[in-house]
Specification:
six-stranded mixed sheet, alpha+beta, 55% helix, single chain, eight-stranded antiparallel sheet
Length: 953
């Protein structure tokens, strides 16, 4: 006999009017609701509600168990609302929940659960009606419930999770970032309490992943998106086939992978997003409330793949899915305008490829409908105006109806009025408007090129050849001749010049000009003739090498693969009126180690001396954005971005990026702003970069987000940026290559900021990282309160005397240097007096230590591995602050202001290195995998700091 049957038998033994009938009714209702939860048999829930209404009749106001009946009935009605979405059930659940809460005052043992459930129902009502007052009250109630569920309470995780959900909802509504941060923090706390095996771990993983994705969309921090993907995968494992919540996990993971593709351009992410999207759609059958969003998102991903691979089957399927989504988004649906717009976009693309006018006409109809849904102030109205104008202009090209073109002009004019100069869309819209006007004025514009006049020959061979040879020494060894498509050596380049019209003009001019002006004239002519264009791009498949094109014209060869890219690059250089062009694919003899070494050593200088650098972003459509291109994540392209003074970006279709017609995109404020966002590099370095070792830490950080095909290349790609000439040794480890680079930086500059990193230590040297990724951004440490306290004390005479002594020790300390793989490092040392193991985490191996060191506040660190026994011995460890003269350079006399500056500098928190003593009085860095933030105890400990020079291996 099951529990329901037993409770029915109990009820039958308590006829109406008998004592205990209310208890029997209540217990049967609870048993029915529990059985409904297990099998969701709707009749059980309806019967439970009816029984509880009878119970309430038997438990009038003042009855000691009335609150339990109110609470249980509210819970059942809330459950029925979840199944049937009848608003009346939800309203009654809220009313009953309030009544139950009033009967459970502070101190009542069940007050927390009433607070929690009423808050959940208010959040549901917010989701239904969008009334912010409901969500605000829900947050207040959840906070009150959380206060009643302290650490260790069995239901604390439920309150944390529900409160996080409310903050996430409020962020969706009001876009206050503080709410999102709160949601993430609470979600993490809930997840820590819902360990593997917990029945609600999956939903917590899922919700936290969704919030991290929202934060990625807001802040564009890749680690948020990567963590979201990991959490979604973990949730999906807990929701196997047949699980009722599997489709949200499939859908959520698909959206994250789609975002990652947009950010990094990895096709594997897009392919997986499509696979997961299909799986989610299969589970969201017709009638499912979220089928529309699955149809729309899968269609969007198929469109992305169409843009990448140009397969018509993807476009056809995207159109079918967008149509299906639109059918589910009837007039009045908040996403109908988006579906109209995207379907129109796909139909316009199909027209571009197949020429079916019916597609274009339908696209116009859909765009008109989308535009009607956007009021004048809507942020998407501009793009809708622009896209409708483009469709009408295409229709005019097919069938020149003046009304179409006039409407396109009017729409683009309205779009321009809504934009401001400097907006990324402004120049695009203006360019389109100019095109429409040109179509109206003169659809066929003829272009003619004037013929150059004949010029008599004058012999300057000896002088010119000498100057040309000197000029070519600073240029690449081989260059493409853009007029012929033939790769030319330096001898061939000289021959071209000697037979050119420019040379003939020069010889004539030299005949007429005064002798003292001839040298300048010759130099100007030669410099102008040999201006060259450099190419920057991502290597793809079938790139042409030197041996493939040597002795042939690239224009006579097949345009498949990389050759087509090379041909178009050469033509673009020619269009810009340059005769010479260079590409790293075919202009270097990679079989010659000497030539490869010279090219790598000269690469930065070549890009710096180029008249123009053309950057081809093969993965960016004309309306795309920089930050989605893989070009910005490759190692070699960093110097190819920084070195050139003049640069032009070309999109996937070889049109200028966003149709920006500037002669130099580095002078375009919009481009520079986008470059800053895409690279994390400040504008002054993008427009006026000087190679060298100033601010070495920042330069390493720029490179830390990039990667190369050969691991050691990440170091070689930085030689030019640091203005270093080091041997290229392919086959050495990446650690050694990076180590050699860092040794040169410290040896030449003394800049110890490059020791500020967190991660795996290199086998090359313990103070160097194994991977350049360890230089990714670290938090800036600044404590104004500490500054004020220390500055206030600096006037004490006893401190001044000690400060002067400390200052002398610092200024007299030697510069850091490397000798035989040993780093001689001046530093302020703090001997570790005690190391206490506070605990370890058996689930994910980690060990927390409390460290006491002379002159420092106690600090805690968490390590992935246990400290070796030798580190626990007294005197074995030192916490040190590396020092070099540029950190503080006072005048000879340490005046009061300089005292304050020094005390302030040394009193702030700093990133410390933990060193262990080895035999022969040498040290080695340990615990590099964690950021160690140390701070002097007080001003007295600052002035008593010990300055030593240590030998570190």
């Amino acid at each position: 006999m099951d529990d329901v049957s037993r409770k029915r038998a109990d009820l039958e033994s308590c006829p109406p009017g008998s004592n205990g009938r209310d208890v029997a009714l209540f217990n049967l209702a609870v048993a029915l609701r529990n059985r409904w939860k297990e099998g969701e048999k709707f009749g059980d829930l309806g019967e439970a509600i009816a029984l509880l209404r009878d119970v309430l009749q038997l438990r009038p106001f003042g009855h000691p168990n009335r609150s339990s009946s109110l609470y249980e009935l509210a819970l059942c009605l809330s459950n029925r609302y979840n199944s049937q979405r009848a608003v009346a059930d939800l309203e009654e659940a809220v009313t009953l929940g309030r009544a139950a809460l009033e009967l459970r005052p502070p101190g009542h043992p069940d007050r927390a659960v009433s607070l929690h459930n009423l808050a959940c129902d208010l959040r549901k009502r917010f989701q239904k009606h969008g009334r912010r007052c409901d969500l605000k009250e829900a947050i207040q109630l959840h906070r009150a419930a959380l206060d009643l569920r302290p650490s260790g309470h069995p239901d604390r995780s439920s309150s944390l999770h529900a409160l996080a959900f409310c903050f996430s909802n409020r962020y969706d509504s009001q876009k206050a970032v503080a709410d999102l941060e709160q949601a993430v923090t609470l979600g993490r706390a809930a997840l820590e309490l819902r360990l593997p095996g917990h029945p609600d771990r999956a939903v917590t993983l899922y919700n936290l992943a969704c919030d991290l994705r929202k934060r990625f969309q807001k802040r564009a921090r890749m680690y948020d998106l990567k963590e979201a993907i990991e959490l979604h995968r973990a949730a999906l494992e807990l929701r196997p086939p047949g699980h009722p919540q599997r489709s949200p996990s499939l859908h959520g993971l698909a959206r994250c992978l789609s975002d990652k593709y947009d950010s990094q351009g990895l096709v594997a992410d897009l392919e997986e997003a499509i696979t997961l999207g299909r799986a989610a759609l299969e589970l969201r059958l017709p009638g499912h409330p979220h089928r529309g969003v699955s149809l729309y998102n899968l269609a969007s991903d198929l469109w992305r793949r169409f843009e990448k691979r140009a397969r018509m089957c993807d476009l056809e399927e995207a159109i079918e899915l967008h149509r299906a989504a639109l059918e589910l988004r009837l007039p009045g649906h908040h996403d109908r305008s988006v579906s109209l717009h995207e379907l129109a976009h796909c139909l316009s693309a199909r027209y571009d490829r197949q020429g079916a006018v019916a597609d274009l006409e339908e696209a116009v109809t859909l765009e008109r409908a989308a535009l009607e849904l956007y009021p004048p102030s809507h942020r998407k109205r501009v793009s809708s105006l622009h896209d409708l104008a483009q469709c009408l202009a295409k229709h005019f090209r097919h069938k020149p109806i003046a009304a179409d073109l006039d409407e396109a002009i009017a729409l683009e004019q309205e779009a321009l009025q809504l934009l401001t100069p400097g907006d990324p869309s402004y120049d695009i819209s203006r360019s389109c408007l100019m095109t429409y006007f040109q179509m109206k004025i003169n659809p066929e514009v003829a272009t003619t090129f004037p013929r150059a006049p004949d010029v008599p020959h004058f012999d300057l061979n000896q002088v010119v050849r000498g100057l040309v040879s000197e000029t070519l020494k600073t240029m690449p060894t081989r260059l493409l001749h853009t007029h012929t498509g033939v790769l030319c050596t330096k001898d061939a380049q000289i021959s071209h010049f000697m037979g050119s019209q420019q040379y003939n003009q020069l010889s004539s001019s030299c005949r007429r000009c005064p002798p003292d002006q001839r040298a300048k004239l010759i130099h100007t002519t030669i410099s102008g003739y040999f201006k060259f264009v450099m190419f920057s791009h991502r290597w793809g498949e079938s790139e042409p090498l030197l041996r493939d094109i040597e002795g042939r014209s690239i224009y006579d060869m097949s345009s498949k693969g990389g050759l087509g890219k090379l041909q178009t690059f050469s033509l673009r250089a020619c269009e810009q009126n340059y005769l010479w062009a260079w590409s790293d694919t075919c202009c270097i003899d990679k079989d010659s180690s000497a030539e490869l070494q010279e090219a790598i050593g000269s690469m930065f200088a070549w890009y710096r001396r180029s008249a123009l650098t053309i950057v081809y972003l093969s993965d960016i459509p004309n309306t795309g954005s920089f930050w989605t291109s893989e070009w910005f994540r490759r190692g070699w392209t960093l110097q190819e971005l920084l070195a050139p003074r003049t640069i032009l970006f070309y999109a996937q279709n070889w049109s200028l990026y966003k149709n920006l017609l500037d002669s130099n995109h580095k002078t375009d404020a919009v481009v520079i702003e986008e470059l800053e966002k895409a690279t994390g590099i400040e504008s002054q370095f993008l427009t006026d970069f000087s190679p060298g070792m100033d601010d070495a830490r920042s330069r390493l950080r720029w490179a830390s987000w990039r990667h190369t095909t050969r691991d050691e290349d990440i170091a070689y790609s930085l030689f030019g940026i640091f203005d270093l000439h080091l041997p290229v040794m392919y086959g050495e480890s990446a650690e050694k290559a990076l180590g050699r680079l860092l040794v040169e930086i410290i040896s030449h500059s003394g800049d110890i900021s490059i020791l500020d990193w967190v991660g795996e230590a290199s086998s090359f040297h313990s103070c160097f990282p194994a991977h350049i990724t360890s230089y990714q951004a670290l938090p800036l440490l600044r404590s104004p309160d500490t500054d004020e306290q220390l500055l206030g004390m600096s006037s004490q005479p006893s401190l001044s005397t000690a400060l002067r002594k400390l200052c002398r020790s610092l200024t007299e300390s030697p510069l850091p240097e490397f000798i035989n793989r040993r780093l001689t490092l001046p530093c302020i040392t703090h001997g570790v007096t005690a190391v206490q193991l506070k605990g370890n985490n058996p689930l994910s191996p980690s060990y927390k230590y409390r460290i006491l060191a002379s002159g420092l506040r106690p600090l805690e660190i968490t390590l992935p591995a246990k400290l070796e026994d030798a580190a626990m011995k007294q005197g074995a460890l030192q916490l040190v602050r590396p020092w070099y003269s540029k950190l503080f350079s006072p005048s000879t006399d340490l005046d009061a202001m300089a005292e304050k500056q020094l005390l302030s500098t040394l009193g702030r928190p700093f990133h410390a290195l933990l060193l262990i003593l080895l035999p022969h009085n040498e040290y080695k860095r340990i615990a590099s995998s964690t950021l160690i933030v140390a701070q002097p105890s007080d001003s007295g400990s600052v002035v008593q700091s010990e300055v030593r020079t240590l030998n570190i291996v």
